[in-house]
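Protocol step 4 of 5: obtain the predicted structure for the target chain.
Materials: sequence only (see below). No template structures provided, no constraints applied. The aim of this step is simply to have a reference model before the mutagenesis design in step 5. Sequence pasted as it appears in the construct record:
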Amino acid sequence: MAIDITLLLDDQPGALAQIGEVLGRAGVNIEGLCAVTSGGGQAEVHLLVQDLEAALPALASSGLSVTSEQEVVVVALEDRPGALGAVSRRLGEAGVSITLTYLATGTRLVLAADNLAAARAALGK
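Step 4 output (structure tokens):
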């Protein structure tokens, strides 16, 4: 089961470096990442990590709190024009709304949806 974890951070220089260093010291590989600033002094960071059991306490002990965890679908994606459209169309035709998406290492697409079971079925997962 793949889990996306979300952190809210103050938007300041070095914040992303802190996450990378904390997880690196804990031996946790970041497999996917999306970081967006809101313009209000905050940044929302989504992480896909394999070793959730090591990541959560490492982040907490460094003062970084995970604000949410959600199960996601991870789909291998061809690195070619139209690949995202094809996957997204399958979900749209199944009536699934994508609530979060970003790319992970190895050209994999990370997806959260309003109906994860329907998303899995539409994608043959």
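Step 4 remarks: DSSP finds four helices and six strands in the chain. The beta strands are 2-10, 30-37, 42-49, 66-76, 98-104, 108-113.
Proceed to step 5.
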